Amino acid sequence: MHILTLSFDDGFKRSSLETAEIFERFGLSAAINVVARGHLGEPDEGWHKRWPKGDFGLWNELQARGHEIMPHGLVHANKSELPFAESKRLIELCLDVFADELDGFDASQAVFAFPYNASTPELRAWLPDVVRGFRTGGEPIMPLPQPGQTKISCTSFGPEPCDVHLERLVDELLARRSGWLCYNVHGLDGEGWGPLSASTLERLLARLHERDDVRLLTAGAALDLCSS
Ligand SMILES: [Zn+2]
Fold this sequence. Notes:
Number of strands: 9
Helix content: 25-40%
Number of helices: 8
Bound molecules: zinc ion
Strand content: 15-25%
Distance between the termini: 19 Å
Shape: globular
Oligomer: single chain
Structural class: alpha/beta
Largest sheet: 6 strands, mixed
């Protein structure tokens, strides 16, 4: 049994719509992690702002279509560079925005995707008090989901396109008897850091979807395998 979680960050409007459509072609749910103030211009950095972000109207629509929308920070701060109290405040404000804006959002069921995959031991110790789990940098191929698991480790590749890196890790996953690969993707076809091409995504999903030893799951759905 192998699990692949493709975890798409930053909430680019065009890419999120296209990612959702590609997953829908295979009857699958996409995992999309969005910045609470993304539609208000965050992160306030030139290289990032050139790609329009979706808003909660879009996130509610995609969620209603079966996709998983999860928090990726209030303003996309690098939390390894901030005091704990400031990071905690930003995460709490982020979760408040999600509770106000995303239909049915329940923080205790959320998986928080750290911007830059950057966390600290203090944050990793505190976060399970407020969310179900979190995604942070680390070994991308984990054992299958464990009961009570809260930490999901992942990797990403950039700023050049990530297609080759992703496909190599998928092959590494499939070469093992079992495992769970969580790969952090951003936008499609030139959008975002380390973009993936839509054609690679579609080909990868087609290839894996027909295997009965691979499941393509969102982070939440993967954790669900152990909760009953
Ligand atoms: Zn990000």
